Automatic annotation (TrEMBL):
Protein source organism: Xenotaenia resolanae
Name of encoding gene: TUBGCP5_1
Ribosomal protein in keyword set: no
Domain of life (superkingdom): Eukaryota
Keyword set, alphabetical order: Cytoplasm, Cytoskeleton, Microtubule
Record-annotated Gamma tubulin complex component C-terminal domain positions: 1-293
Function description: Component of the gamma-tubulin ring complex (gTuRC) which mediates microtubule nucleation.
Entry similarity comment: Belongs to the TUBGCP family.
Name recorded for this polypeptide: Gamma-tubulin complex component
């Protein structure tokens, strides 16, 4: 049972960092290159190759499925990953503890992590050198630069500053989920499992653990408005990354204005909401995230 519980954390909660990195970055690269990736055969080969290198015994048990996505959600890039569902074959009697209902909760956390890591990867792979050729070209053409509402160097500077602000937000969120929530809660859970006296107690401990991470990852309906604001920022990150990679000529000064304004509004909303929640004592675990985002907001 302990081995199977560890496997759930390794893949669904991505504790096996190197293994899952190999899997999801191959998907992210396909997305960035505008190539097709939503093919079950491609995804399963990718997953089995990544898992087989370090955990060969799990490569036969783990698979990935594609679920249909609501057409209304396709307009936001960050939602495109919602088609992915992991499945892990758990034998009897272990499936009494790790039931199919439990796997649904694990999958919700897995998807959230995937969306955060997608945003993080999109920002991490951007390079300042992407603007070097554009700058030289426009500097050599005073006529072209005269047409711009703001000097090219100022626009690039604003893009670089916005990237840093977005990176601070995404890294703060990523660190909060991976360390403050999943790692800390996982240690408590392992201790409780070791002390369990019977099967009923094990089932209760496991359900309580899943309910805790589901709650603290802001996946509860009660705090859905907080998750929505976070998703807006992650979506903005993907749009920003796409514009950056498209090159200077593909976007206008107005698009920088809108991205800066949208990020500031979402950031301000989250900082205000989280601080109120922490002050009321209703969500004490959010304090570290609130403080981190507040530091980033003050810098803005």
């Amino acid at each position: 049972l302990l081995e199977y519980l560890q496997a759930m954390r390794n893949y669904f909660l991505q504790e096996a960092g190197d293994t899952m990195y190999d899997f999801y970055t191959a998907i992210f690269d396909k997305v960035q290159e505008k190539e097709s990736w939503q093919q079950p055969s491609f995804l399963n080969v990718l997953l089995q190759e990544a898992v087989g290198q370090r955990y060969p015994e799990d490569s036969r048990r783990l698979s990935v499925f594609l679920e249909p996505l609501d057409p209304s959600r396709k307009k936001h890039p960050v939602n495109n990953l919602e088609v992915l569902t992991l499945s892990y074959k758990v034998p009897w009697p272990v499936d009494i503890v790790i039931s199919s209902e439990c796997q649904k909760i694990y999958n919700q956390v897995f998807l959230l992590l995937l969306q955060i890591k997608w945003a993080k990867y999109s920002l991490d792979t951007l390079r300042f050198s992407d603007f070097a050729e554009v700058t030289k070209k426009l500097e050599g053409s005073p006529v072209e630069e005269a047409k711009l509402k703001q000097p090219i160097n100022q626009q690039i500077h604003r893009m670089c500053l916005l990237r840093v602000k977005l990176m601070h937000f995404v890294n703060s969120l990523h660190n909060y989920i991976m360390t403050r929530i999943l790692h800390s809660t996982g240690l408590e859970f392992q201790h409780q499992v070791q002390e369990a006296k019977d099967l009923d107690q094990l089932i209760k401990i496991h359900y309580r653990y899943l309910a805790t991470i589901h709650d603290r990852c802001l996946l509860r309906e009660k705090v859905s408005f907080v998750k929505e604001a976070i998703m807006k920022v992650l979506n903005l990150v993907l749009i920003f990354s796409d514009r950056w990679q498209a090159g200077f000529g593909a976007w206008k000064i107005e698009s920088i204005d809108k991205m800066e304004s949208d990020f500031k509004n979402c950031h301000m909303f989250l900082v205000t909401i989280l601080n109120k929640a922490v002050c009321r004592g209703s969500f004490p675990h959010l304090e570290s995230l609130a403080l981190s985002l507040m530091a980033g907001f003050e810098q803005c």
